[in-house]
């Protein structure tokens, strides 16, 4: 488990080991995504960053801050409400028109939904943000990731280690929905998808991360400014600042500790001791991690799902959902 000082040491090496890096941040205009993009912009000499988000005002503000921190970088805002899969496709097409490769896909969309809300495409809104749109970005951008020569990586920030029981006939949460169930399903499906994708694409590493409790605007947006301020004060002793969260996530996105299955232990730019993947293999390509970069895999649960072929079944459900909603494949 790397300490914060070790995280900073690894991040500091990026200036010499990774002179350039092309990244896409989905959910990059607030919270964890914004914090991580800012840390990357400071650490990489010539970064290229695409920020995907709904709010153009927030996007413009962050672009200005990124340019001020690194005048040698290239920073773009892609406006999209990614609760709709058709908008995901449009955003990906915009990115593909600009780039011939990407090195990092970092996704942190979602909110604390206390009630079920359906999108015009017939899917549960927050389930799309937490799972389907992330997997659609991944699927669409796989060719660009595979074109990377710099240890490509996909990071989905949600609930690594928070998996639980799910049923194949309720993967879309259309049969039964509760707040707790929606949280469990999203976390579990991300972990199962990460395992499937790492096996199918051994030249890319896939991380599912639990970010810990981070002092972001999300809690205020959920419970209100007054209650959010009180909770912020009470949680300060055991929560992370935005800056520390960004530093830790930059480490996860670039450290040699989480290589692809094909590489198995080569350098990704930053330093770090290679850890066990979610399948138990050191350097296995799929990683379920806590905020501190430690392996958080529930080994017995994931082995049971693996034995019942849930990684492949969940991914097939995902592809079927894309086909049904988009009717273009």
UniProtKB/TrEMBL annotation:
InterPro entries: NAD(P)-bd_dom_sf, SDR_fam, Sec_Metab_Biosynth_Oxidored
Domain of life, source organism: Eukaryota
GO terms of molecular function: oxidoreductase activity
Keywords: Oxidoreductase
Name of the protein: Short-chain dehydrogenases/reductase
Organism in which the protein naturally occurs: Aspergillus ellipticus CBS 707.79
Organism ancestry: Eukaryota, Fungi, Dikarya, Ascomycota, Pezizomycotina
């Amino acid at each position: 488990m790397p300490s914060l000082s070790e995280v900073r040491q690894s991040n500091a090496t990026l200036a010499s080991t990774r002179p350039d890096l092309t990244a896409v941040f989905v959910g990059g205009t607030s919270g964890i995504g914004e914090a991580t993009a800012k840390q990357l912009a400071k650490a990489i000499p010539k970064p290229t960053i695409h920020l995907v988000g709904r709010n153009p005002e927030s996007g413009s503000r962050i672009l200005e801050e990124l340019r001020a921190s690194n005048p040698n970088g290239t920073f773009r805002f892609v406006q999209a409400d990614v609760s709709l899969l058709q908008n995901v496709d449009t955003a990906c097409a915009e990115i593909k028109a600009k780039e011939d490769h990407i090195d990092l896909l970092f996704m942190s969309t979602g909110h604390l939904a206390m009630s079920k809300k359906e999108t015009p495409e017939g899917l549960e809104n927050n389930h799309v943000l937490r799972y389907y749109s992330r997997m659609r970005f991944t699927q669409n951008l796989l060719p660009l990731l595979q074109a990377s020569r710099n240890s490509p990586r996909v990071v989905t920030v949600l609930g690594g280690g928070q998996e639980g029981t799910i049923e194949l006939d309720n993967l879309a949460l259309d049969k039964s929905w509760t707040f707790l169930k929606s949280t469990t399903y999203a976390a579990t499906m991300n972990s199962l998808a990460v395992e499937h994708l790492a096996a199918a694409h051994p030249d890319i590493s896939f991380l599912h991360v639990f970010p810990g409790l981070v002092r972001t605007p999300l809690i205020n947006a959920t419970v209100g400014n007054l209650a959010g301020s009180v909770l912020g004060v009470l949680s300060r002793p055991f929560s992370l600042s935005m800056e520390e969260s960004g530093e830790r996530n930059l480490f996860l996105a670039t450290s040699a500790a989480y290589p692809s299955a094909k590489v198995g232990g080569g350098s990704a730019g930053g330093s770090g001791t290679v850890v066990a993947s979610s399948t138990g293999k050191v350097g296995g390509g799929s990683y379920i991690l806590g905020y501190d970069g430690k392996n958080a895999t529930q080994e017995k649960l994931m082995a049971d799902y693996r034995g019942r072929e849930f990684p492949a079944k969940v991914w097939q459900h995902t592809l079927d959902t894309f086909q049904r909603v988009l009717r273009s494949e």
